[in-house]
Design brief:
The chain is an alpha/beta fold. The chain is about 45% helix and about 20% strand. The structure holds ligand NAX. The site of ligand NAX has 28 residues, from α1. Catalyzes the reversible oxidation of malate to oxaloacetate.
């Protein structure tokens, strides 16, 4: 068998962490032949809770789980990391301005970027889940100059999966028949779920829907505001579905996307589709041989163009804001 892969998870004692760690330990992150060593990072006050989760992981007797280490120091936690899931972040609290939020997260993602730069393995792959995910990824990346920039990604897979599910429901189709849907832009309310290139059972999904009113007034806002809908219903934010999406993101990055389909990942822009270079923005991507590539050559209609630009502009503003704060 293979040598264990080191997977660092931050925010390990949080609710996404709780759902995520068991999936990783069972082999769903990297596949059934890859043993994993978990390296958990928490703030000192939450280390005890992370230790509790580690006891339960032990009680899972997972054959692929080769070890668990718990840290409250980023340098140690990222040492030798092959995969890093950056889940812990500073949530927006009442009365908090955007600049305060970005600053607080800069205090988390700057040292974590530095720690990744200092000690992660050469093949490190980073997924930022903690919000504001795209800009947190940008901050971490800018403090890891020795790591190839494209190894820093942010999560829009939950949005992607939500959109696939809503479209399948509308078309009365199994989710497995929906392909080539795209989330563009920021993981925020401005994100744009695009069905114009999507397929249902091989046919164009937008044509199958043939209802622009539903698209503009129901589908797009429903996907963008699904997080709030979950909070309203559950009394807590999405956790297991977010963990599931993080698993999907890394699994596809490492093991490839299925033939004839693509997925959505927020990745550093190379200028494709008019997205300013360097912004970590969501694109349609295919993954192969452990690498992702932005799908090229899609025609962007007017309906899509305005919405992509609006979300990308928001990302550009966030980048300006963190620049001003000296965080990148
Ligand atoms: P929780 O508050 O349950 O857990 C967060 C954990 O992070 C806590 O245990 C906290 O102690 C820890 N933490 C804080 N600062 C840390 C640091 N510097 N180093 C290590 N750990 C640290 O939040 P949870 O519900 O698990 O959500 C985590 C993050 O995911 C939030 O920022 C949330 O907004 C974000 N989400 C992102 C989604 C996405 O699609 N990209 C969807 C789900 C989720 O809302």
């Amino acid at each position: 068998t293979q040598a264990p892969v080191n997977v660092t998870v931050t925010g390990a004692a949080g609710q996404i962490g709780y759902a995520l760690l068991f999936r990783i330990a069972s082999g769903q992150l990297l596949g059934p032949d890859t043993p994993v060593k978990l390296r958990l990072l928490e703030i000192p006050q939450a280390v005890k809770a992370a230790e509790g989760t580690a006891l339960e992981l032990e009680d899972g007797a997972f054959p692929l789980l080769a070890g668990i280490d718990i840290f409250d120091d980023a340098k140690q936690a990222f040492a030798g990391a092959n995969v890093a899931l950056l889940v812990g972040a500073r949530p927006r609290t009442k009365g908090m301005e955007r600049a305060d939020l970005l600053e607080a997260n800069g205090g988390i993602f700057k040292p974590q970027g530095e720690a990744i730069n200092a000690g992660a393995a050469d093949d490190i792959r980073v997924l930022v889940v903690g919000n504001p995910a795209n800009t947190n990824a940008l901050i971490a990346q800018s403090h890891a100059p020795d790591v190839p920039a494209e190894r820093f990604t942010a999560m829009t897979r939950l949005d992607h999966n939500r959109a696939v599910a809503q479209l399948a429901k509308k078309l009365n189709a199994p989710v497995g028949e929906i392909k080539k849907l795209t989330i563009w832009g920021n993981h925020s309310a401005s994100q744009y779920p695009d069905i114009f290139h999507a397929e249902v059972a091989g046919k164009n999904a937008a044509e199958a829907v043939n209802d622009e009113k539903w698209l503009a007034e129901e589908f797009i806002p429903r996907v963008a505001k699904r997080g709030a809908e979950i909070i309203e219903a559950r009394g807590a934010s999405s956790a297991a579905s977010a963990a599931n999406a993080a698993i999907d993101h890394i699994y596809n990055w490492v093991n490839g996307t299925p033939e004839g389909d693509w997925t959505s990942m927020a990745v550093p822009s190379d200028g494709s589709y008019g997205v300013p270079e360097g912004l970590i923005s969501s694109f349609p991507v295919v993954c192969k041989d452990g690498k992702y590539e932005i799908v090229q050559g899609l025609e962007i209609n007017e309906f899509s163009r305005g919405r992509i630009d609006a979300s990308v502009n928001e990302l550009a503003e966030e980048r300006e804001a963190v620049k001003k704060l000296g965080l990148i």
